[in-house]
Design a protein that fits this description.
CATH topology of chain A: Ammonium transporter fold
Radius of gyration of chain A: 21 Å
Oligomer: homotrimer
Number of domains of chain A: 1
Largest sheet of chain A: none
């Protein structure tokens, strides 16, 4: 591995992306997952351990496809990409929070990063799809990989080792306390605050960077207001808010706008995207698959929605709107580089391909990984050990 | 609404203002208000909802006076201004914490932003007063609007629906717990940390920007040391600190220096401003008006103090000190643009006008808004429902 | 004191160093020290008070050696240096957490900054040692000054005023609660996140800046994974993590790489440094000296380790590796400025001198300061008052 001379001015200027994303990964995801009453140490600890491991492993995996002479080059952009990749694993961790052991999580992380980097190579370099905020390659991938693992881990009926008393104990631990919901808000709000930096961090042009910041900000603001209103309408006691919605659906606007935030959506479009996200995200129905943090609602469905939006806005892209920037954002539409250059419609089809491939690859590889972690060589949690820090920590 | 091409380099460089202010609004104000023992969900939730609503509404209101062809232009500076405007509403929320219902708060926010944007137009564009950190147009306005509402909402004697037992219950909830005072410190310290970014975010020249950062930092450091010393002197048990002072008066230095931080105060002047703020801020006497967070002490009086300082330093401004920057900071003193150009004394008078108009407009419109929210169509809290998350949230 | 015109572009660009370090000092150190169950107010409050005092005092002390005509110049770099200096005092505070009174702490802070600034002048200006992240002049100094004070404050046998019941009470307060360990993680993770900004903030060249960010990031990631693994191996129940390791040893990689992060360590070298830090840091053995936060393990030993590494990498420095940057980093090796210019080996010797002088000066002056604070004019804590907020705060 080598440290090359710095990229020019641009990366020094739009430097914030790295530091801000860093806060999202380690504080944001970490504290958001402290909502369980007796799993805060594990949420924070595994979040930290997994992310610190993944940033190292992702540097290797992400550059696998670009290596020359077996050398890896690292600059600040590399670190930002590694931080972003670790989000994928942390989303998956959210689906499995409290039900997977440390050894299982480490194995899952290592496999997932390898597959996710391959998928990202397909999305960005083969399909040349636009996905600046990673809603397809990060959020959708992480969520459906996690649900694949979760489906594989599902206990068969009669598999439980718990009596009624223990079942009640586990059900109790699977919920929040007043204090744990407050610490979860630290994570949720920091994720919300820096989401514009996350989505814009890898933008290729200053105009695209500014659009990404503005559209993400507007979409988040709209999804937040929508989520609060909807929460008051659908919660058990009418007119009261539900922390599950407030901690999660507020953020859906950031995911939903991710793939299109650097495109010409217009501010009205960004607000509409956010309102849509606020509507589809609150966790009303549940599938049969265990999903502790509701990553399907926060990352999965909004990610797919963002992928669909990217098909729409790619299809609408014209040189009139984007000027010079068109070929920087949609590289395969540049006739100087690719012959024949894609049309807007062609680009839209490739966006669709990126979304479908991501869905299939993530869920499939998650399912296989999940089955592997059921092998006897892996440490598995008993029912009575779920959602409990006791298993993993020296407690005071 | 349209997204224009980016402002030049300057706004990319002094970008931090936006991200840092964002942290202050959503983490800073939100967590500072979690100090009540049973109102943390509401503090964080309403803070988030109100701010997310206001940033959208403020974009419209702030640009109302500059619109051409009914089009609104948005860039990163627009977002920063919207974030700053939401501070006004959150200051008002602080005065009413625990005693206003969600519906009342939403109505108050919508009205307040419209009036505050009109007032800001008067201060900045009509009076051409200098107020880079918003101590006049944001802090003073938000505090006295809130006290106006609070005065209007004051229960008449005998209006209470509580027996003695319930009154004790409400009085108990109106205070902090050990844990809630710790989470409040998250907010207080983040506000403190990023205050230099808040005050300098809209500075017009690089020199003014750097002066704003340095003066704010020095003033905050001085007000913090002063607050601790004073707290130890005046608290119930001599020599002990009081969290009310520590969470609030420490910040008064940031408000007090706000209107003058980009001016030539000199470091000694900035320290003196901070010491003064630390002396006037600790909440010793209370008026008859309910003010849950003590916004009069943190934002009101220090804001007026800052306005008075701006009269002083405007009166002292000379070309010798400011060089080219003089006419960028005091635009009406530029003979190339305004005939006849203002003298320093004339500018001082306009600073006074800005302060007086802000005080009258904020308190008056707050009072009227308060009376409107007492109309039967608004949901009002009973005495027994005050300071209690139970009313607004599904609790674990 | 005067505010000069701004430094050129560079300091506006690499501005993050200031804001990010600010978060580390006030949130990072503050919350990390809330791990004691009944000392959170004091940890946060004294951290804030001491740092706010020190940033003012450090501006004076640091510029004492550069003053012309008794004038002090302040720019953003000055503020960053003052923030960094306050870390020294907060590290010392960590060693004494819960056992020193407020008056003692204030006296210690004032003396320590004066001596630490003299030591920094020796390290940077006399020895011209490289120490960009301050592992020698900040971390090593702060830790061994603190241990010097702690040794002096050690109670003689039979000095205790507590009966058995009280001793048990004090021992109980000297540990964490579940909630206090969670709030401590806020501090620990924010320190971790912004460490690359801390270490790179004062880098002299863009290349050195980027190397400092990357090497610090890699070293931290490596020390984190190593710390978790080691914690699971050595904790009381095998396979469980211990919060003491997780909150502290994870950070040791940042200290360990501090003095060399802007040098050519290569990414592999940075990872190795971090792994080494993760191995030496977990608090396995304790000396007889009281050290509440374990600053010897987090700052002391990793700081010495970093100083030793700086001897190694200075000795290996060649013009081939560094190009033009060589003489900016190792100023005394520049023949245009110093005759005779140092060789790499000579520079290595001066690195050693810087480390040894820092160790002797910090421990010695700490010991003397500690003995002075035992004089009757200082307020001292009784055994029964240790680790207890009650002494210093109005509690709810």
């Amino acid at each position: 591995m080598k440290v090359p001379p710095p990229l020019g001015n641009r990366w020094l200027k739009i430097l914030n992306g790295f530091e801000d994303t860093h806060v999202m990964i380690f504080i944001g995801f970490g504290f958001l997952m402290t909502f369980l009453k007796r799993y805060s140490y594990s949420a924070l600890g595994f979040n930290w351990l997994l992310a610190a491991l993944v940033v190292q492993w992702a540097i290797v995996c992400q550059q696998f496809y670009e290596m020359k002479n077996y050398e890896i080059f690292i600059n600040k952009k590399t670190l930002l990409e590694a931080d972003i990749m670790s989000a994928t694993v942390l989303i998956t961790f959210g689906a499995l929070l409290g039900v997977a052991s440390g050894v299982q999580l480490l194995f899952i992380a290592v496999v997932e990063v390898a597959v996710a980097c391959a998928n990202m190579y397909l999305v960005n370099d083969v399909f040349k799809a636009t996905d600046v905020g990673g809603s397809i390659a990060i959020h959708t991938f992480g969520a459906y990989f996690g649900l694949g693992v979760s489906l594989a881990l599902r206990s068969k009926k009669g598999d439980s080792d718990t009596g009624n008393g223990q079942a009640a104990h586990v059900a109790d631990l699977a919920g929040p306390s007043y204090a744990s919901d407050v610490t979860a808000m630290i994570g949720s709000i920091f994720l919300w605050i820096y989401w514009p930096s996350f989505n814009s961090g890898l933008a290729d042009t200053p105009e695209g960077y500014q659009r990404a910041v503005i559209n993400t900000y507007l979409s988040l603001a709209a999804s937040t207001v929508t989520s609060f209103v909807l929460s008051a309408l659908v919660s058990k006691h009418e007119g009261r808010f539900d922390m599950v919605h407030v901690q999660n659906s507020t953020l859906a606007g950031g995911v939903a706008v991710g793939s299109v935030c650097n495109l010409y959506t217009g501010p009205g479009g960004a607000l509409a995207v956010g309102i849509g996200a606020g509507i589809i995200s609150p966790r009303l129905a549940k599938f049969g698959i265990l999903d502790t943090c509701g990553v399907n609602n926060l990352h999965g469905m909004p990610g797919v929605y963002s992928g669909l939006l990217s098909i729409l806005f790619a299809g609408l892209a014209t040189e009139e709107n984007y000027g010079d920037g068109l070929h920087k954002i949609f590289k395969a539409m540049d006739p100087a580089e690719y012959t024949p250059a894609r049309t807007a419609g062609g680009q839209a089809l490739y966006q669709l391909a990126a979304l479908v491939v991501t869905l299939v690859l993530s869920f499939g590889s998650g399912l296989i990984t999940g089955f592997i972690t059921k092998l006897p060589i892996f440490d598995r949690l008993k029912e009575s050990e779920k959602y409990d820090d006791e298993v993993n920590w020296e407690l005071p």
